[in-house]
# Entry
Amino acid sequence: MAVDHYENFPVASLLLPKHLRRPVEVIYNFARRADDFADEGDMPDEERLSRLNAFRVELNRIASNETPLTPLFREVAGVVAEHQLPLQLFHDLLDAFSQDVVKKRYANFDELLDYCSRSANPVGRLLLHLYQEASPQNLYYSDSICTSLQLINFWQDVKKDYAIGRIYLPQDDMARFEVTEDQIAQCLSGKAWRDLMRFQVDRSRNMMKTGAPLGTILPGRIGLEMRLIVAGGMRILDKIRSVNFDVFERRPVLRLHDWVIMLLHSAPVNFLK
# Structure
């Protein structure tokens, strides 16, 4: 359900129909490379933003029916044309990556949801357009799943994100539960931290449940792929709870036995129970 660089992205899974694997891979390559500009290495912020802006220029060439200058964007142009994908969704991803460069704190949950609407939701929407299943209801379900997955990544990666200067936990929630940045810096997982994380885990779980019906709507292998994604997110939440919310020392990851459990939960007879 996740990949090393760009989370929440089913990368050309064998579960996908063969004719969709290459388009998914192209979209993934776009997202991964742009995300790396925002996160990887020791480039100054100005250089990160400049590289992301170069991607915008290439998208604008596609919009103007001009030939892109780079092989990646020539592939993007082909996929966009063949599958009638909305270019705005690619721009939304770039906006989110640019925001990561300059914005390190989120005052409240609404700010975080706005970020997720551009950092995560476009991925699900692009896939639904590829599947020709982009109905308003399906888009709503997909947004709930993708936002939930993004939040889950934040909760399991608090320590990693803090190391690069970012805190995605809403500042008002931290104040409400009396958790300070100094506690995060010291990796303290006392009662206040557990209460805060329990609240975030429950909120993310409810959001995932809201979107879960999409796994029963999408047909065949893409439906199974979606059910596995939902089951994977739920499994990570279970693991966060099982370590008593101490993600500092015991970051939850999916092991082989977890995939067996996820497959069982993804069977139509068990899903949504």
Q: What stands out?
A: The chain has 14 helices and no strands. The chain has a mean pLDDT of 91. The two ends are 20 Å apart (CA to CA). Residues 220-242 form the longest helix (23 residues).
